[in-house]
Specification:
elongated
């Protein structure tokens, strides 16, 4: 029984990982993968001194950003 070095073991693991990945991909006779989905980004929250997004013309901190007490 031959003893494998760490480099050979690493090579075999990498080779097996590539084979497993290839199994996941569609074959020539299968439908291609769908295009990637664009991530949804939330709009930036207005800062205190930005104009209010409600359209009042006031600063956000004076209008909708005012703390309720």
């Amino acid at each position: 029984m031959a003893k494998h070095t760490a480099g050979e073991d690493r090579f075999r693991r990498k080779e097996q990982k590539e084979k497993d990945y290839q199994k996941q991909l569609p074959g020539e006779d299968e439908e291609p993968l769908p295009p990637p989905v664009e991530p949804i980004h939330a709009d930036k929250k207005p800062e205190r001194n930005d104009p209010c997004p409600c359209g009042s013309g006031k600063k956000y901190k004076v209008c909708c950003g005012k703390q309720k007490t």
